[in-house]
Design a protein that fits this description.
Elements: E1 12-13, E2 20-21, H1 24-35, E3 40-41, E4 48-49, H2 52-63, E5 68-69, E6 76-77, H3 80-91, E7 96-97, E8 104-105, H4 108-119, E9 124-125, E10 132-133, H5 136-147, E11 152-153, E12 160-161, H6 164-175, E13 180-181, E14 188-189, H7 192-203, E15 208-209, E16 216-217, H8 220-231, E17 236-237, E18 244-245, H9 248-259, E19 264-265, E20 272-273, H10 276-287, E21 292-293, E22 300-301, H11 304-315, E23 320-321, E24 328-329, H12 332-343, E25 348-349, E26 356-357, H13 360-371, E27 376-377, E28 384-385, H14 388-402
Antiparallel strand pairs: 1-2, 3-4, 5-6, 7-8, 9-10, 11-12, 13-14, 15-16, 17-18, 19-20, 21-22, 23-24, 25-26, 27-28
Length: 405
């Protein structure tokens, strides 16, 4: 029988790691962390646990019972431990600190998971593709990429997601909320991950390298997209015309050529565009600002990309080559349009007569046959035509007059 002075004394010690306990029962439970014994099993999903109370908490994930509620925001939890960790999001308390980098966390579990980013440990492995993760939660989210399960839905637009976290980030696209701000340049982001990637533009860190060509990237996602240039993989396909793309964003932008959607509008004149990039390019026509100048001929441009393309007219560089006929181009979009001469694709259709064209410029020129608009005028005789090309052809009639015998 223990005396009152023995109460609280840790007289039961683990022979394996030296941990000590006040009760023999606690020592027995602890020993299971060394033996791997998990005598308490869930009858629903087969998960097993070292402690009976852990099984009781786990069963609530099946019954949906969450008996512990937050008095501040009303959120409910399956265990008191989870509630205590949640309360720290209100108090700002982060009592668990990383000895390596000083980062602090609201729960011991989050600290343990964080430590693995330093050790490289990824104890949770996918049985389908051998990917490994630092936490079981990340593994569970990853498994949905194989099963196709997306249990979290957006009430605004109906988009579905594999995790609650991804849904929360998506919701900010509707609310406009960007809670993560860069302290260097004041850019703000909807997710901490995007902020971390952005910060590398300031630090110069480019941690992801291509093993094929040595190119390096600021995010794993960009490296994955780049790798498709080597593999030829184009996983995103257009359901209308079958065109395929390396990036989902490119496929969505392409779809606008079918739907006619132009979500980006100019605040000055109301012109609308299918690409955000094209809208920024257009804005330069209002400001007149052209900060990028050619050192060869003095031409100036609103965008650096336009200057890079222009310089190829001096160097003769045509980096975009057609694999079918060896034609080469200074611009990627010119190659894309050219490829349609081989595939026969004509994605731009006239709503009046149904004629179709390989690019939007040809469609706009064609539309003038219906509207009667002739914006190109001859400076010699004031004759007007529908296209610049027709004006060039017309000018030859004057050149022949000058050179007639």
């Amino acid at each position: 029988m223990n005396t009152k002075s023995d109460a609280g004394k840790k007289q039961y010690s683990c022979e394996v790691c030296g941990s000590s306990f006040t009760r023999k029962l606690n020592l027995m439970v602890h020993m299971r962390t060394h033996t791997g014994e998990k005598p308490y099993s869930c009858e629903v999903c087969g998960s097993s646990f070292t402690r009976k109370d852990s099984l009781v908490i786990h069963m609530r994930t099946h019954t949906g019972m969450k008996p512990y509620s937050c008095e501040v925001c009303g959120s409910s939890f399956v265990s008191k431990q989870n509630l205590n960790a949640h309360m720290r999001t209100h108090t700002g308390e982060k009592p668990y600190s990383c000895e390596v980098c000083g980062s602090s966390f609201t729960s011991k579990l989050n600290l343990v998971i964080h430590i693995r980013t330093h050790t490289g440990e990824k104890p949770y492995s996918c049985e389908v593709c051998d990917s490994s993760f630092t936490s079981k939660k990340k593994l569970d989210t990853h498994m949905r990429t194989h099963t196709g399960e997306k249990p979290w839905s957006c009430e605004v637009c109906g988009s579905t997601f594999t995790s609650k976290q991804y849904l929360a980030i998506h919701i900010r696209a509707h609310t406009g909320e960007k809670p993560y701000s860069c302290e260097v340049c004041d850019f703000s982001f909807a997710s901490k991950r995007n902020l971390n990637i952005h910060m590398r533009t300031h630090t110069g860190e480019i941690p992801y390298s291509c093993e094929v060509c040595g190119s390096s990237f600021i995010s794993k996602q960009y490296l994955g997209i780049h790798m498709r240039a080597h593999t030829g993989e184009k996983p995103y396909s257009c359901e209308v015309c079958g065109s395929s793309f390396t990036q989902k964003q490119h496929m969505l932008e392409h779809m606008r050529t079918h739907t006619g959607e132009k979500p980006y509008s100019c605040d000055v004149c109301g012109s609308s565009f299918t690409h955000k990039q094209n809208m920024f390019k257009h804005m330069g026509t209002h400001t007149g600002e052209k900060p990028y100048s050619c050192e060869v001929c003095g031409s100036s441009f609103t965008r650096k990309e336009s200057l890079v393309i222009h310089l190829r007219t001096h160097t003769g560089e045509n980096p975009y080559c057609c694999e079918m006929c060896d034609s080469s181009f200074t611009r990627k979009d010119s190659l894309v349009v050219h490829m349609r001469t081989h595939t026969g694709e004509k994605p731009y259709s006239c709503e009046v007569c149904g004629s179709s064209f390989i690019n939007k410029q040809n469609l706009n020129t064609h539309m003038r046959t219906h509207t009667g608009k002739k914006p190109y005028s001859c400076e010699v005789c004031n004759h007007s035509v529908t296209s610049k090309q027709n004006l060039i052809i017309h000018m030859r009639t004057h050149n022949r007059e000058k050179h007639s015998c």
